[in-house]
Amino acid sequence: xxxxxxxxxxxxxxxxxxxxxxxxxxxxxxxxxxxxxxxxxxxxxxxxxxxxxxxxxxxxxxxxxxxxxxxxxxx
Length: 75
Hints:
Order of helices and strands: EHHEE
Largest sheet: 3 strands, mixed
CATH architecture of the domain at 1-40: 3-Layer(aba) Sandwich
Shape: elongated
Oligomer: single chain
CATH class of the domain at 1-40: Alpha Beta
């Protein structure tokens, strides 16, 4: 793990990202205090991209879905 000041991180972001892609972790500091950590993104931590409208035609809502439900306590 390496520590880099925010100013140096801004100037060397390409280099830092290359190191992270190779498995190294980078801690970014401000005023000598750690504020962020760059870590490699793994397949398990990558979230799938949701596509708007991808469920179209797969969900069916009954015509009476908003009708009152029978009160089972009175039966």
